[in-house]
Design brief:
single chain; about 400 residues; 14 helices; mainly alpha; Growth Hormone, Chain: A
Length: about 400
Amino acid sequence: MDQSSGAAQQPQGTEKIWSKDFMFIFLANFFIFLGFQMTLPTIPLFVEHLGGNDQLIGFVVGIFTFSALLVRPFAGWMLETRGRGVIYLTGLAIFVVSVGTFGFASGIAFLFLMRIVQGVGWGFSTTASGTIATDLIPPRRRGEGMGYFGLSGNVALAMGPTLGLALAAAITFKQLFLISAILGLAAFLLASRITYKKVEKTEENKVRRRWDVYEKSALQPSLLLLFITTTFGGIASFLPLYSAQKGIEGIEWYFFIFAITLMLSRSFAGKLYDKKGHGAVFLPGTVLIMIAMILLAWLPNSLVMFIAAGLYGFGFGSVQPALQAWAVQDAPMNRKGMANATFFSFFDLGVGVGAMTFGQIGHWLGYGSIYIASAISVSVSILLYILMMKRPAGK
């Protein structure tokens, strides 16, 4: 139940980030992301196990993000009108049930359906968790705090894909997905201990329409993010298959190096954003991402793959929290949830478009072409940013 007491109601002058509730949301986010990241490189293998090709892999991966995309605006509206806790716990519960059923799929059609359900749970839970973290972080330390919060997902990313691939080689897919569901259950239990910010019964909230589906102040950073997260769809869906096709070993180390460098970049990128703004973070980060995509398109050996992982980790780890902080900073207090919903909607759209489009590109032109297309997508984001910054101040 939402309450008005607790860490979420700290005075504006309080600068403490690591409150009890922030640690709960940090740990809950870690466990749900660990369960999710374990499935990230193994879902394509499972689809292949069920007899699917590259095109079906792209659709199974992509439909998850599109279902999350569709529910995020509704989740953002519900966060501001019904409260944080009920939306977060509902999303976690849906995620647990859907992932737990993956291993019982005997055909791709059922798996496809449950991926849609999983996307609904993911859309609710991740929109809520980002909003809850925003509530708990002092405004003047928002970039730094969101960077710390992002570490929970980054640590999970460091462990999840490697653990998932190792388990897929040692146990059945059914057992693997049940373990992922148990991790989601741990997140649910931790989330039930949080004291959530109480929804204010303002006249603006009372008259807010359900079809209010985005926050205008978050559109610019969200649009930039879309062209960057297409790269994530290409890596998550096809890099394990691409490296296997080329006979390159160590794909599990790619994900580990990516996650470690992601964490390292978050340790300073958030503070840099707070001091100097997104200009000091965005362009250097996106250039690193583009170089990483070019290296993956080339991919002659494991060393190049590991270098690409490090560059991608530093780039993505710098850009993503900066764009998220930018997305929520200008939103009114009663619109932070919708700003987060807008941001993650574009995140999902990028991943989904990337997975589905690159599935077609990979099928017809080969896996290497996926990463050439990814580099082009990042260059579009850079061009859009330059054009945005040349526009007169004032929205």
